[in-house]
Design a protein that fits this description.
The complex is a heterodimer.
Chain A lengths: L7 E9 L5 H10 L4 E5 L5 H6 L1 H18 L15 H25 L3 E4 L1 E6 L2 E6 L2 E13 L3 E3 L12 E2 L1 H4 L8 E5 L3 H12 L3 E5 L11 H13 L3 E3 L3 E8 L2 E7 L5 E6 L1 E4 L3 E3 L13 E2 L2 E2 L12 E3 L10 H15 L15 E3 L4 E6 L2 H6 L4 E7 L4 H6 L5 E7 L5 E8 L2 H13 L4 H5 L10 H10 L7
Helix pairs in contact in A: 1-8, 3-4, 3-6
Chain B lengths: L3 E5 L9 E7 L6 E2 L4 E6 L4 E5 L4 E6 L6 E3 L3 E6 L5 H10 L4 H5 L8 H8 L3 H6 L14 H9 L11 H9 L18 H8 L1 E3 L3 H9 L16 H9 L18 H12 L5 E3 L3 H16 L2 E9 L1 H14 L5 H15 L5 E3 L4 E3 L5 E3 L1 E3 L2 E3 L2 E2 L7 H16 L5 H4 L4 E5 L18 E15 L2 E15 L5 H16 L7
Parallel strand pairs in B: 14-18, 18-19
Antiparallel strand pairs in B: 1-8, 2-4, 2-7, 3-6, 4-5, 6-8, 9-10, 11-20, 12-13, 14-17, 15-16, 19-20
Helix pairs in contact in B: 6-7, 8-10, 9-10, 13-14, 13-16
Classes of the chains: A alpha/beta, B alpha+beta.
Protein name (chain A): Dihydrolipoyl dehydrogenase
Family (chain A): Belongs to the class-I pyridine nucleotide-disulfide oxidoreductase family.
InterPro entries (chain A): Class-I_Pyr_Nuc-Dis_Oxidored, FAD/NAD-bd_sf, FAD/NAD-binding_dom, FAD/NAD-linked_Rdtase_dimer_sf, Lipoamide_DH, Pyr_nuc-diS_OxRdtase, Pyr_nucl-diS_OxRdtase_dimer, Pyr_OxRdtase_I_AS
Chain lengths: 472, 496
């Protein structure tokens, strides 16, 4: 394309990246009457929708149904030859991702948002250059530019994913066949979801964690109970263990690590999934060149998501944690509403962002862990209720897990909630709302919870914090 | 001769009452000889290294770094030959500080700096002079380097530490690799960092607690109809805050938890804060200046001095003669000259006498990290401008790095405090006791002045002298300022 053909298009807001941060920002800006362009180099919906949250939930649903089939007899049912076809399981997940991605296309059209394919780069404040295969294809000028380019799996030096034997999350969600043995490096939400999925379909799964407990972001009680539950399902764990070498030999990988006692351990695995966190996608965007301040590879922003360069914003995984899709979406709305000059805005409090892991059993949490609260010198009251004392959990055959709540004794504030068990990812929202409304234990205690539901455990946990639990 | 000897806190000057142990230079088991440097101690003035007064093997360390001990108190025990732990225990148990040492500074016989001071008739000052046997700390800058070394080190993001510990460390620029960990599983705890930094971080709840401790006050009418979140209402009750006294910022004008916390801070006058323990220097500054301000009847006299001529002279001397004289150097020289012309200002009030000094020893206030110090230019009246200039530069530079010897900052008969470089018009200073006068110097600024009925521009510098009325009367102070003004407005006259 000759340079002369490249024109500059003008917008009020340009968004770079069409993931759950970017596309939400674009829609909200359009709703507020701004002219909006969104620049995306690959898929509408970003990693979340195409290679993250959504397709993995589809895979895990297949696993859950299969698990139920295997346990049919416990429910008085019989199945003949319960089986699965991994190709079809994967296909279902891809179909759902594709459908939702088209849904984003539709939303862009509906909101009159200009979608530009290509890689957006900040050429100057208010100026973007768009390129495809490193060839300049267009220029965009906008008063406000929001970067929402997300993050990618972190790789350990010398142990980079090759896509064949060593997988990143992306390859792990489109297996052509089931590996006989699998090493999962990292026991965060992503690692545990894959460990859980593959284990359900019979793979021998080993999980390696550098910290002294799995799911290190969660409350210590949750880590301990989750590890017990996963062990019961046959997953092996090495905590306090650091991967030292990882070598691909033919169609398998040899891994060596030092265990908690400093002893060298090792094994050969058909596949390895690297799930050791994410790194922000900030390279090549022209941010550093234009003076945008970075710290530890992340873009530094103020509480309204503006970077150190006026008119340039960054939201989602490329900024400070938590690195979660719903955090990106929420920041997107606040950022755009602030640009639009709306009043009564509240910046996002990272402690109010819930976190969910969709393994079996599920894990969900919000706010401070017990340890964090105590480290802050807060006088806490802690409640805990085990699901096996709950009628609905027994009826569902899902009596594993518990609900833990942490209150500030002085103010009655709900500081944190931590849950393990069936459907807890759906339950957590009750506590998130309570926290946002600054409810105390009294309001929660006086709220009527339907019987029989899993949510009764939420009620009992609150009551337990004040020694009033009925069923324990 | 007993087998066991005590290593104690030395007395480096009359005003020295205690010292903070900074670092041991020897370990238990090390051989030590008379004169060996064994420990670094920070006093209110400097960091200095104490020398051993005995030979033997260090068998016990009694005082730990960071602890503050009074003069003559036990720091460690040295033994000659074999001793048992029980003997050492008994020695430590029965140790009595030397009563004489408590009052007697370390002045060695024939110390010339002491004699020189005696010669101009200031025995108390002489006593403050340092022993020549305790030279300057040549290789250790005080607190600044301690702080710097805490900040150094490799990336500490991998160090196991609590979130709070990490946050405090970050706030105080401390590398976690330098903090000994005592927390669970070898983790660095909040206390560890506080200990390393010498700070105590008060949790944000302090303001709230202070509120709760106060009786109910302010608005007392029923606030149950004010919209508030449940947490906010509970907190308000706990803190005795009436919701009428709180500005709501929540949705639909609801009072939120944050609003209550904000109100608690505002109503209690307490913001979140952290505390840093007083350094030895800070304590001395606090004690001496409080005493000075409370016991000396201060009064101030000020005068405007036109320094255009001085600036022109200085420009020539610096540009053409290759000097690098500062305005302050001229002021030091002029003060010395004025003290010679009006000796009644070069005095001290002793309680039963007026002590008249014969030479003008000018103390100059130097701001240093964590406080200030006043090195002395001795007999400035008999020194040339260039001598004064190089001496002043050298003293100021070494003051910054904590390398002044004790005799370089004790004594002095008159102090100059110059804040002109900060552009202040004028200020008043507190007398540097036991001296009787201090000159506070403002910035030289172009101002309109009236001369022969005409308004014209001149560079005007205002000086204000605080004097001890017990020793110096107003007319005397005025004469001094007149003489000073004369010298500074006619710099050539300083050559006489």
């Amino acid at each position: 394309m000759a340079t002369s053909e490249i024109t500059t298009r003008k917008f009020d807001i340009a968004v770079v990246g069409a993931g759950p941060g970017g596309y939400v920002a674009a829609i909200r800006a359009a709703q507020l009457g701004m002219s909006v362009a969104i620049i995306e180099k690959q898929h509408m919906g970003g990693v979340c929708l195409n290679w993250g949250c959504i397709p993995t939930k589809s895979l895990l649903k297949s696993a859950e149904v299969y698990q139920s089939m295997l346990h049919a007899e416990e429910y008085g049912l019989s199945t003949k030859d319960a089986g699965f076809d991994i190709k079809k399981i994967v296909q279902r997940s891809r179909d759902i991702a594709a459908r939702l991605s088209r849904g984003i296309d539709f939303l862009m059209k509906k909101n009159d948002i200009t979608v530009i394919s290509g890689f957006g780069r900040l050429a100057a404040p208010g100026e973007l250059e768009v390129s495809v295969d490193e060839e300049l294809t267009g220029r965009v000028s906008a008063t406000h530019i929001i970067f929402a380019t997300g993050a990618r799996p972190r790789s350990l030096p010398g142990m980079e994913a090759d896509g064949e034997v060593i997988w990143s999350a992306k390859e792990a969600m489109v297996p052509e066949s089931l590996p006989g043995s699998l090493l999962v490096v990292g026991s965060g939400a992503i690692g545990m979801e894959f460990a859980s999925f593959y284990r359900t379909f019979g793979t021998e799964v080993t999980v390696l964690e550098m910290m002294d407990r799995i799911l290190p972001q969660e409350d210590a009680d949750v880590s301990a109970a989750a590890q017990r539950a996963f062990k019961k399902r046959g997953i092996k764990f090495f905590t306090d263990s650091k991967l030292e070498t990882l070598e691909v030999k033919g169609s398998s990988a040899e891994a060596m690590w030092a265990d908690r006692n400093g002893n060298s351990q090792g094994g050969t695995f058909d596949r390895v999934i690297m799930a050791v966190g994410v790194v922000a996608n900030t390279e090549g965007l022209g941010l550093a060149e234009q003076g945008v301040k970075m710290e530890r590879g992340q873009v530094v922003v103020d509480k309204w998501s503006e970077t150190s360069v006026k008119g340039v914003y960054a939201i989602g995984d490329m900024t400070a944690p938590p690195w979660l899709a719903h955090k990106a979406s929420h920041e997107a709305v606040i950022c755009v509403e602030k640009i639009a000059g709306l009043e009564n805005l509240e910046p996002l409090d990272p402690l109010s962002v819930p976190a969910c892991t969709y393994s079996s059993p599920q894990i969900a949490s919000v706010g401070l862990t017990e340890q964090q609260a105590k480290e802050q010198g807060i006088n806490v009251r802690v409640g805990r209720f085990d699901l096996n004392a709950l009628g609905k959990a027994q009826a569902m055959g899902e009596a594993e897990g518990f609900v833990k709540t942490i209150f500030d004794e002085d103010s009655g504030e709900l500081l944190g909630a931590h849950m393990l068990g069936a459907e807890v990812t759906e339950l957590i929202q009750g506590y998130v709302i309570a926290q946002k409304l600054e409810a105390t234990e009294a309001e929660l205690a006086h709220t009527v919870f339907a019987h029989p539901t899993m949510s009764e455990a939420m009620h009992e946990s609150v009551l337990d914090a004040y020694d009033q639990a009925i069923h324990s | 001769m007993s087998k066991l000897h005590a290593l104690t806190v030395p007395k480096w000057g009359m005003s020295m009452e205690e010292g903070e142990l900074i670092e041991w230079r020897v370990d238990v088991g090390d051989q030590i000889s008379i004169g060996d440097e064994f420990v670094d101690i920070e006093t209110s003035k400097i960091v200095n290294t104490a020398e051993s007064s005995c030979d033997g093997t260090l068998v016990r360390i009694v005082a730990q770094p960071g602890e503050i001990h009074r003069v003559a108190m036990l720091l460690g025990v040295v033994a000659q030959g074999d001793v048992t732990e029980a003997e050492i225990d008994a020695f430590v148990e029965n140790f009595e500080p030397d009563a004489a040492a408590l009052n007697k500074p370390l002045v060695s016989e024939g110390d010339d700096s002491a004699e020189r001071q005696v010669s101009y008739g200031a025995p108390a000052q002489a006593a403050e002079a340092a022993s020549t046997e305790t030279p300057a700390v040549a290789d250790k800058a005080p607190t600044a380097s301690a702080a710097a070394s805490l900040a150094d080190g490799p990336d500490d993001s991998g160090v196991k530490a609590s979130v709070v510990a990490r946050r405090i460390a970050k706030a105080h620029n401390i590398n976690l690799n330098n903090v000994p960990a005592t927390g669970r599983n070898g983790r660095v705890s909040k206390q560890d960092v506080e200990k390393a930094a010498g700070v105590s971080v008060q949790p944000a709840r302090k303001a709230k607690q202070a509120m709760a401790e106060q009786p109910a006050q302010r608005t007392t009418i029923d606030d149950s109809r004010i919209a508030a979140t449940p947490v906010a209402r509970r907190l308000a009750k706990k803190l005795n805050i009436n919701l009428h006294d709180v500005t709501p910022t929540g949705r639909r004008n609801r009072v939120t938890k944050e609003d209550i916390e904000q109100a608690a801070r505002a109503l209690s006058g307490l913001s979140d804060y952290s505390e840093v323990a007083l350094s030895g220097m800070r304590k001395t500054i606090a004690a001496r200046l409080s005493e000075s301000k409370q016991t000396i009847p201060h009064y101030r006299v000020s005068v405007d001095i036109e320094i255009d001529s001085l600036l022109a002279q200085r420009k020539y001397m610096n540009a053409e003669l290759g000097h690098s004289l500062s305005v302050n150097d001229f002021i030091i020289k002029a003060c010395a000259g004025a003290l010679q012309r009006v000796p009644a200002v070069n005095v001290q009030y002793t309680g039963d006498a007026i002590r008249q000094f014969e030479q003008a020893d000018i103390s100059m206030a130097v701001a240093i990290d964590g406080g200030l110090i006043t090195p002395v230019i001795r007999n400035a009246g008999n020194k040339s401008l260039s001598q004064i200039s190089s001496e002043a530069k050298d003293l100021a530079k070494r003051a910054q790095t904590g390398k002044l010897t004790v005799d370089e900052f004790q004594g002095g008969s008159f102090t100059i405090s110059n804040l002109g470089m900060y552009g202040v018009d004028q200020f008043d200073a507190i007398i540097n006791s036991p001296q009787a006068a201090i000159l506070a110097v403002g910035a030289g600024k172009e101002k309109p002045v009236v001369r022969d009925g005409e308004i014209t521009a001149a560079t005007v510098m205002r000086v204000s002298m605080s004097s001890d009325h017990r020793a110096i009367d107003g007319a005397v102070a005025a004469q001094f300022l007149q003489a000073l003004k004369g010298f500074l407005e006619n710099p050539a006259s300083m050559l006489l």
